[in-house]
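Notes from the 1:1 (GR / supervisor)

We went over the backlog. Supervisor wanted to see one worked example end to end before approving the batch request, so GR pasted a single chain during the call. The sequence is below; no edits were made to it. Supervisor asked that the structure be written out right there so they could see what the output format looks like.
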Amino acid sequence: MSVTLDFNNMMAETVGVHGITQKQFEDYSNMAKCAHGAVEANRGKGMQEWMCSPYNQSKVVKAINKTAKKIQRNFENFVVLGIGGSALGPIAVFTALKHLYYNELPKKVRKTPRFYVVDNVDPERMNALFDIIDIKKTAFNVITKSGSTSETMSQYLIVMDMLTEKLGEDASKHIFATTSQTKGNLIKLAEKYGFETFYIPEGVGGRFSELSPVGLLPAAVVGIDIEKMLLGAKDMDEKCKADGIYVNPALAMAVLQYISMKQGKNVGVMMPYADSLKYIADWYCQLWAESLGKEVDKSGKMVNAGQTPVKALGVTDQHSQVQLYNEGPFDKVITFLEVEKFRSTVQIPYGCEEFPNVNFLCGHTLNELISKELFATRYNLAKRGRSNYTIILDEVNEYNIGALLYMFQLQTAYCGELLNIDAYNQPGVEGGKNATYALFGRKGFEQLAREIEENKVTGKYIIK
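Structure output shown during the call:
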């Protein structure tokens, strides 16, 4: 089991003038050591408590596995109510490690509850869920650290009302809470109604929470071995305790992206060549954007830092986005995710001998086709001077997914230090939240409500 980084196609000797020279890369070695040292110095402190996730959860894991078994026995459906990291992480891990048509499998094959994540407040989608599940046979995992996330708490209120109407006092047996142990509305509701509860460590933010109970409970419910995930994360952490840019893959990626940003490559594409890894890209987009997209640095200087993440899927987006990547602006770094050994092999049969432009495929496998298309795309991009690197998983399993997620979290933390920004806050998100509160007339936001009313757009530039 392994996760490997190949960054040859980032280097000038492969991609030419738009690449990074070996000297440039090594010139940042000392800066990288400082970034690494800063991250290590804060290990387990403040908002870096996520670095403890691979090590200190044996009791939590035991409790989660026990609860997961109970949910598997008693419920046919398991629904996550959450948004941001509370949804993107569970979706990414579920899709990576379970059958790609899991919910459609018969129960005797699936063995564990059907799995759904409600990560938006679109009324049609919310209603559609209730069209396909029997709420009396469904467990709901409400995930919000603050307990005041408008989207998640509105979903909770809807679900709790429906459960109470149908089940009375037994409604509480269908709710499992994941929240802060010390503060917030959800912990108070859990105490009031007796919801079984798991706690999010105070120093673990949403986008860094997949290896906490936020992600571990949903994974365990669908039969994923969470101990193997944590072992993969632990081994990656041990590997990345080295501060050398030719040894620590997360540090190498952080330096490569940092130099690329300085070169004007302000778009970062993640393109897995495996449907199982499709939603890893979604999860990574939040991690990278919300952590690094900052107006000011730690000194208060205006920097408008960050790199815009874009998700793509190989080979699908060879037929939609790769044209731009090959011939558009030199403003992108493309991260490929490659799988060496798929869990299935599909043969391409003979049957088109009269068509040479199809017959060449016959006798090969879809495994070969997706692998060669990745190689061809990577080769052509490099030939055109387009920067890209590849993360190679020998196979998709719990150990490798745990290692991969943890590596990306470390890369993000290192890059935050290189950029000298706070990778753990999100002031740009708070403005929108506060405006929503004001629009709903929430107490304490009256001044903002007046400001919004005074600055309403007149509608001058509207075409109907």
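Supervisor's comment: The radius of gyration is 24 Å.
Batch request approved.
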